[in-house]
Every structure is written in C-alpha cells, then in structure tokens.
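Consortium newsletter contribution from the modelling node. Members have asked for a concrete example of what our holo predictions look like. Here is one, prepared for the iron/sulfur cluster complex that several groups have been discussing at recent meetings.
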Amino acid sequence: MLDNRVISNKHNNPNNDRSKDDLKKRSLDIYEDDTFFDLVGYGKLIYHPEKLVGIKNETNPFPITATVSLGNFCNHGCLWCSTAYFREDDAFAIDGDKLINWVTKAKDKGLRGIGYVGNGEPLAFKKFKIISKKINDLDIDQGIFTNGYLIDRYEEELLQFAYVRISLDAGTAGTHSKLHAVKENHFPKIIQNVEKLIKNKKDNFPTVGFQFATHQDNIGELELAVKIARDIGVNYLSVKPVFDRGTVKDKIARNSLTKKDFDEAVGNLSKYRDETFKIFYRPQQIISESMEQNQLVYNRCYAPYLGVNIYEDGGIVGCGPHHVEVGNLDTPLDELEKNIIKASKSFDLVKCPAGCRYHAANYLVNQVIEPTKIKKTKHINML
Ligand SMILES: C[S@@+](CC[C@H](N)C(=O)[O-])C[C@H]1O[C@@H](n2cnc3c(N)ncnc32)[C@H](O)[C@@H]1O
Ligand code: SF4
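And here is the predicted structure:
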C-alpha cells in the first residue's frame, strides 16, 4: 500500500510535523461547533448510545461504518486530487468476495454502513454492481462519493442507497472540464444523470448532494452550482476548501481563499436555503486549513471506533492521514478490535492534517468522556 504522505513529498509538510506546544494551548471549552445536527454532522452519535458508553469503558471499539476503496482507477483527473498518487501504482481492484465475507461478519459486531469513496472512482469498477447488491441484501446502509459520470450505469443500485454525493466542483462545463481534466461533455452528462436519478427516487431516497471543493478558480461558480442543484431537486450542497494535499501545487496553485472569502460566498447563497435545500459549510475546515493544522481541542482521537477505511489491497486503516493499519480483511475481528483501541491510543495528534472529517466527532466524544471540562460553559446539568 502506498503511503500518500511519503510519495506526496512535494507537500509543504509531508509528515504534518509541528510544535507540540500548539496542543497545550487548546482545550474543550474554547471551541464551538454548530454543525452537530446537520446531515453531515456528528450529532447522529446520539443514535448510538452504546458506542458512547463503549468508548468510555473501552468495550465497544468495532466501527459503525467503513469507507471502501474499490480500486485505484479514476476516469477523471481532478487537479487537486489527494489520491492521485495511488494511481501511480498499477491498476488494482478489491477482492469482492473477501469484502462481502468481511462485511457479513462485521455486521454481527455492529457495522451498520458502507461508504464508497476511496482512491479512485467507485463507479468505474464493474464489481460495484454485485458488491453493492450483496451489501444491500445484508441490510447495511450504503452511500457513495462519485464524480457522477457513470451514475446512469448503476442507477438501479444507487436508488437503494442512503446517499449519493456528486463531486461537482463547478457551475459550468468549461470550469468543470478544466478542473477535473475531462472533456466538456462530462458536465452536462453528469447533470443529466443526477436529474434522472432524482426523478426515479423512491420514498425520497437516496439523499442526493453536490460537493464543491472550493478554490480561487471556481469560487465564482458556487451560485451557478446552487442554481443547478435547486433546479433539478438536489437536496444539498456541501462547500469545502480545496486542501493543500495531493496534487495541489503540482497541477494547481495552492488555495489562496480566506475564511472571509468563504463566509461572504456562502453568505450570498443563504437566499437559496430552505426546507428542501440545505447548504453545508464547516468554517473549522477553512480555519484549520489556513492554520495548516486541525483544530485539536482534545488529546485523543476515536476515529476508528466510528469508521475505518478499507483499501483495495484489503488493508484496513484506522486513520487515513496517519496511515495506521489495524488489520486486513483476513484479520480475526477480535484482533481488529484490540488493534483499534491500540491505534486510537497511539495517534500523535500533533501530526494531524487540517480539516480531518473526524474532528467534529472527536470534539463531541471527548466532551462526553470528560464533561467536567465543559460543565460551566455548556450548562450541561440540565440548567
Ligand atoms: C478522492 S475522491 C474519490 C471519490 C470520487 N472519485 C469523487 O470524486 O467523489 C473523494 C473526494 O475527495 C475530494 N478531494 C480530493 N482531493 C481533495 C483536496 N486536495 N481538497 C479537497 N477535496 C479533495 C474530491 O473532490 C472528492 O469529493
Ligand atoms: S474524480 Fe475523485 S478520485 Fe477522480 S480525480 Fe477527481 S477527486 Fe480524484
């Protein structure tokens, strides 16, 4: 398995090193996060009280969800892609039978969801059809991040999903073609695919969202993307920054947008928000990116208790950025659990990159575990 931090040595700070003193300045009571109860937030942990109790007692480390990389091939070439370096390796796809076998056993341990993200484009793999069908038959919730170009091939399967998120990143075919390094005909086909998927929804599912990785080269098209989203019935747009990772600085300039730029751009979009259309924006991602580090206000990360990443070589990784393997698809699940506890205790948080998706979860979990630290600021005792 390639280690993205090693091969991506063009990055400013490949090992995410920084002073340990930075952590000492931080504590749970100096931070706020109002995205908990969003669809993309971690307030959903209240639906897993046994997990919170388990974390406190070190009794329930098995992840609730797993993201899966079906393989390292992609039909797009986004200029910032953080997984582009995996594609310098030979094309490789996951062993579908092993994956299904693992998910079947993992369900008994508490696994509830599978998200297809990974080192390439999940829909570029023919085995997506059989894998997603079998996982659906196991009654495990599924979601996917996709560039959207091949949605029409797998509409029947995707209509069974909890969510489909399309990495659109543009409001016009020209900008999309430039930033995703594809022909201009991809953009209209993606929009057409999404429109058709939405028309064929049953009982309002899947939830369909656009993601917009925002950079100085596309921030001007946020409003156009929102208009398209609303026109065709997309449920939400998630705004995030292009992080200084992957091929940033090789293929595209570093993101120069400031939090003010984001606040203004997202503020201008508020007129499009209503009951049926949401806009998700996590200012902490922009702040942490500009500070070149995550906003850590706690001393321990519980990411693998909540989700692990399964790579195409069968490796199971407890934290992508730290690249800590907790086992593989052959590892006995009891051993995997022990490794998860060990990994969670071993992460050197000083080395966490900016914008980690588990930051919001860690903030919540650490508050639950150490309520005395926030007792006064949050009036937690039902006052
Ligand atoms: C690596 S892709 C894999 C799944 C699929 N091919 C897709 O594009 O959605 C997953 C997500 O990571 C995002 N991403 C990749 N590199 C990024 C970076 N440097 N900054 C911000 N987002 C990035 C992409 O925009 C995409 O939404
Ligand atoms: S579509 Fe996804 S995996 Fe492919 S290049 Fe773009 S971000 Fe990377």
